[in-house]
Design brief:
By secondary structure, this protein is α/β, with parallel strands linked by helices. The chain is about 40% helix and about 20% strand. A 7-stranded mixed sheet has the order 3-2-1-4-6-5-7, sandwiched between helices.
C-alpha cells in the first residue's frame, strides 16, 4: 500500500471492524480513516431512533440496526448481528469510547496475523469515585492482563481484539452471544488463549459518579460471581483491610509501591497509584457487589444477571 508521501505499508488481510454504538463518535472517524480498500467498518446500533442510524457514513462504512436485545446485552446482540453481516474472514471487535493513533488498526491486525487471536489491553481511568477503584482495577485486571497471568491471563478485550473465522465456531458464537451479557467474556471462553499486545495499552475514560461506578463494578464482579464465585475476593479484601488497620505504614508503603511499579510498566503516567492504600476498601466491596447485587445499569439499559446464560433486560 502506497501512502500520499510515497512510503509504503506492508500488505495485510482485509478485516471487518465491528463497532457497536448509539452515536457517531470521534472513534468512528478514527477507524473510518484507517480502513484499507477491502476493509469494512460496521457501525451497529439498536434501533432506527438511535442518533447514529441517520448518519450518512463515509466509504466502506455501513450503519446496521440490530434490533432490541432479548435475553442478552445490547452490545452482545449488536456483535451477533454484525458477525452475520460481515464479509471478511478477519474480525476486529472494538468500542466507540476512546481515540486511536493513526496506525492503530494496522498494528492490531499485524499482531493477530503474527500471533493468532490478539488483544489490546484496557486501562480504565476517570475522576470522582472511580479514583478509589482505579489502582485496584489496574492491579487485579489490567496488570494481570498485561502479564498474561492469573484470572485475566489470556482473556480477550472486546474494545480491541482481532481473530478469524478459523479461530472458533462462528455460528455457535452468534447463538451464544444472544444469551450473553459480556461479549468479551464469551469471546475469551471461545478463543482460549489470546495474545496480549503489551505495546497497546488503551486508555479508556469512565464516568466517576457514584451510581455509575457501583453499576460498573457490579457488572464486572457479578459476571465473575455467577461463573466462579467472588468469595476469594472478599477474603482477600478483608485481609487487606485487616493489614491496613494493624500495620498501616507497612501496608501503605507496600501497596503503593506495587501500584507504582504496575503503572510504570503499563506506561501510565497518573498520580492515582497513590490512592492504592485508601482504595483497599474497594476490593472487598467489589466482591460483595458481585455476590449480593444482581441488577445494574449499562449503556442506558438495566439488566439482571442470575446466571451465565440467564440475562434479563429489566428496563
Amino acid at each position: 500500500m502506497t501512502r500520499e508521501d510515497g512510503s509504503t505499508t506492508p500488505a495485510r488481510e482485509p478485516a471487518t471492524v465491528l463497532l457497536p454504538t448509539l452515536e457517531w463518535t470521534p472513534a468512528c472517524d478514527d477507524l473510518a480513516g484507517q480502513l484499507r480498500a477491502d476493509d469494512e467498518l460496521l457501525v451497529i446500533c439498536d434501533s432506527e431512533s438511535d442518533p447514529v442510524a441517520s448518519t450518512d457514513p463515509p466509504e466502506r462504512v455501513e450503519v446496521l440496526v440490530a434490533g432490541e436485545p432479548q435475553g442478552c446485552s445490547g452490545k452482545a446482540n449488536a456483535m451477533a448481528h454484525g458477525i452475520e453481516r460481515a464479509e471478511n474472514d478477519r474480525f476486529v471487535w472494538t468500542d466507540a469510547d476512546f481515540r486511536r493513533e493513526d496506525d492503530w488498526l494496522d498494528r492490531l491486525i499485524a499482531e493477530g496475523e503474527a500471533h493468532g487471536p490478539a488483544t489490546a489491553i484496557p486501562f480504565f481511568y476517570g475522576g470522582g469515585w472511580w479514583l478509589l477503584w482505579e489502582p485496584w482495577t489496574v492491579l487485579f485486571s489490567t496488570f494481570l492482563f498485561y502479564l498474561g497471568v492469573g484470572s485475566w491471563g489470556g482473556n480477550a478485550w472486546g474494545g480491541g481484539v482481532t481473530f478469524t473465522r478459523d479461530d472458533l465456531d462462528v455460528d455457535a458464537l452468534i447463538a451464544d452471544l444472544r444469551q450473553a451479557l459480556s461479549d468479551d467474556g464469551l469471546l475469551s471462553e471461545r478463543l482460549g488463549e489470546t495474545h496480549p499486545i503489551r505495546s497497546m495499552v488503551v486508555r479508556v475514560e469512565v464516568p466517576g459518579g457514584f451510581r455509575s461506578v457501583i453499576d460498573r463494578q457490579t457488572r464486572f464482579t457479578r459476571l465473575t460471581h455467577v461463573r466462579e464465585g467472588m468469595y476469594d475476593a472478599v477474603v482477600v479484601g478483608i485481609g487487606l483491610i485487616g493489614a491496613a488497620v494493624a500495620f498501616p505504614s507497612v501496608t501503605a508503603a507496600l501497596v503503593t509501591g506495587v501500584a507504582a511499579v504496575a503503572y510504570a510498566l503499563l506506561g501510565v503516567r497518573r498520580w492515582t497509584f497513590l490512592l492504592a492504600f485508601p482504595g483497599i476498601v474497594t476490593v472487598a466491596l467489589g466482591g460483595l457487589l458481585g455476590i449480593f447485587r444482581s441488577e445494574f445499569e449499562w449503556a442506558g439499559r438495566r439488566y439482571r444477571l442470575n446466571g451465565p446464560e440467564d440475562v434479563e433486560v429489566v428496563d
